[in-house]
Amino acid sequence: MNEEKNPAVSEKELEAIGRFSRRKLSAEEVYTFPVVLCDNDLDRDNECFTDAALEKLAVLFCGKTGIFDHDPRGEKQTARIYRCAVETEDGRLNHRGEPYKALKGWAYMVRTAANADLILEIEGGIKKEVSVGCAVGKRVCSVCGADRTEEGCGHLAGKRYGGALCYTLLEDPTDAYEWSFVAVPAQPAAGVTKSRSPKRALYLTPERAIAEMERGELHLDAAAAYGLRKHIELLEKHSEEAGRYRETLCEQIRRRAMLAQPEMTPALLEKSMAALSVPELETLAALMKKQAARRFAPVVQTAPAKEPETDNRAFCI
Q: If pLDDT is split at 50, 70 and 90, which confidence band does 192 have?
C-alpha cells in the first residue's frame, strides 16, 4: 500500500468510482488507496500467476469488494476496487529471472464515522496486507507441464527434481471473488495480497489443504473440497498400482531366495521384506538374482570324445 497521505481525488477518479456508485460522489465523501493484489513471483504455497493470468485478473477484479479474512458476510464489506492495472517494476526480476509484474488495484471507501478508524489504520500502515480469492482454470506443474486441476503428476510443489524447484503455475483465471485484509498473505510482496487465512479457502491446493487439516485450521468450500477429493482419488489409484508392483517384487524375491538363500526361513524373509521400501525391494531382488546366478552357474558340457576310426573295408561284400 502507498503509505503517503491520501491525495485529493481527481475528477477522473470520481468518474471511475461513479461506475459502481448509485450517485456521483464528491471528493470529500470518498477515501481512495492503492493495493497490490498479486504478482508473478513465487508465493509461500509454491505457486505463482503467469503474466497472462495477471492481465485477465486485472479485468476480473475491477468492481470486486474488499472484506476481512475472506468472510463473505455483507457487514464485512469495507471497500471496492474501481480500477486495476498490471505494472512492471523496473530492474526487479521474479524467481524465474523474468521481469517482476504485479496486479495493482485502486480501491475506494465512503468516508463515514464507522470506518474512520479503519482509514486511520490504513494510513498508519496497520491494515496493510491483503489477499485475493479467485478461481483459475489451470494449475500447471513447472516440472512436467501437467495440469494439476485435471490429473496428478506425482511431482510435489516445494520439492526439487534434478536440482530444479517444483512449483505450480496458475493460469487462465475464470473468476475473481473478492480481496481481503489478512494478517499473513500467501504472497509476501502483497500489501494494502492471495490468502493464507485458515478461515475460508476459496482457492486451495491439495497439499496445503492436507497440511491445514492436520493443524485443525481448515474450512473448505465446495470447489476446494472437490479438488481435494479428486486428489485423494488419484493417490488411491497410484497406491493400488504401487501395491501390485510391490507384490510382484516380493514374489520375485521369494523365488530367488529359494535358490540363493535356501537356509532362510519364509517367516524371516517376509518380515524382512515388510520393512523395506519399493526401491529397497528392487535392490534386494537384483541382489538375489545375482546370488542365484552365482550359486547355479551354468556348466559347460564338452562334446564326447570321438571313437577311433576302424577300417572295415575287409568286411565289405
A: very low
Query: Based on C-alpha coordinates, what's the Rg of the chain?
Result: 33
Statement: residue 55 has pLDDT above 90: yes
Give the integer Cα–Cα distance in Å for 317 and 314. 8
Sign of the Cα pseudo-torsion (207, 208, 211, 213, in order): negative
Residue whose C-alpha is closest to residue 78's, from 39, 121, 38, 36:
121
Residue 300: pLDDT band (50, 70, 90) is: low
Answer yes or no: is pLDDT of 197 > 50. Answer: no
- Written in H, E and C, the secondary structure of the chain is CCCCCCCCCCHHHHHHHHCCCCCCCCCCCEEEEEEEEEECCCCCCCEEECHHHHHHHHHHCCCCEEEECCCCCHHHCCEEEEEEEEEEEEEEECCCCCEEEEEEEEEEEECCCCCHHHHHHHHCCCCCCEEEEEEEEEEEECCCCCECCCCCCCCCCCCEECCEECCEEEEEEEEEEEEEECCCECCCCCECCCECCCCCECCCCHHHHHHHHHCCCCCECHHHHHHHHHHHHHHHHHHHHHHHHHHHHHHHHHHHHHHHCCCCCHHHHHHHHHCCCHHHHHHHHHHHHHHHHHHCCCCCCCCCCCCCCCCCHHHCC
Q: Calculate the CA 32 to chain-centre distance.
A: 34
Work out the number of other CB atoms within 10 angstroms of the CB of residue 72. 15
Q: CA triplet 60, 66, 71: central angle to 5 degrees? A: 110
Mean pLDDT (whole number) for 7-29 = 87
pTM of the shown model: 0.54
pLDDT tens across 100-134, in order?
Answer: 999 999 989 889 888 888 888 888 877 777 788 88
What mean pLDDT value characterizes the chain?
79
